[in-house]
Specification:
151 residues, eleven-stranded parallel beta sheet
């Protein structure tokens, strides 16, 4: 009458994956939230958030989006404005329209030309307090000299 099917039992006892890449929570333009946001999925911010954001998936800050506070996420694409600290477990991508003021702790960082970043960055290791080209070269990082202004 009852079968002892191990695959069926395993499927029934398996805990669901908490991060659902197909689901995106969205804070639309014109919406303002103050407080703490926690999401087991992805989050897109096109409005304004003041407070703490914890996202187990990807955080997307649209061009009209702004965040003031602390962000903890798996990965992030920023096109808007963020003022505060970001702790990103994988890739943090600053798009050309991004404005970020604060400290970053991430595994990987991508910055497009045009993006503005003011603050400190730590990538899978110690924090470099100041962007000293000599120190960065001795630690194995690639440093490009800023372009000279054309007059």
């Amino acid at each position: 009458m009852f079968r002892n099917d191990r695959s069926a039992q395993a499927a029934m006892t398996k805990t669901p994956d908490t991060v659902n890449p197909g689901k995106i929570n969205s804070i639309m333009e014109g919406t303002s939230i103050e407080g703490e946001i926690k999401s087991d999925s992805n989050l897109r911010v096109d409005g304004r958030v003041k407070g703490t954001i914890h996202v187990k998936g990807r955080l997307i800050v649209g061009q009209s989006g702004s965040i003031e506070g602390e962000v903890v996420c798996h990965s992030s694409d920023i096109e808007g404005t963020v003022v505060g600290r970001i702790n990103c477990q994988d890739l943090l991508s600053l798009k050309a329209t991004a404005k970020l003021q604060g400290d970053i702790n991430t595994k990987k960082l991508a910055i497009e030309p045009g993006a503005v970043f003011t603050g400190n960055c730590s990538m899978a290791g110690g924090v470099v307090k100041e962007m000293d080209p000599v120190r960065l070269r001795t630690e194995g990082a690639r440093v490009e000299q800023p372009a000279q202004a054309v007059r």
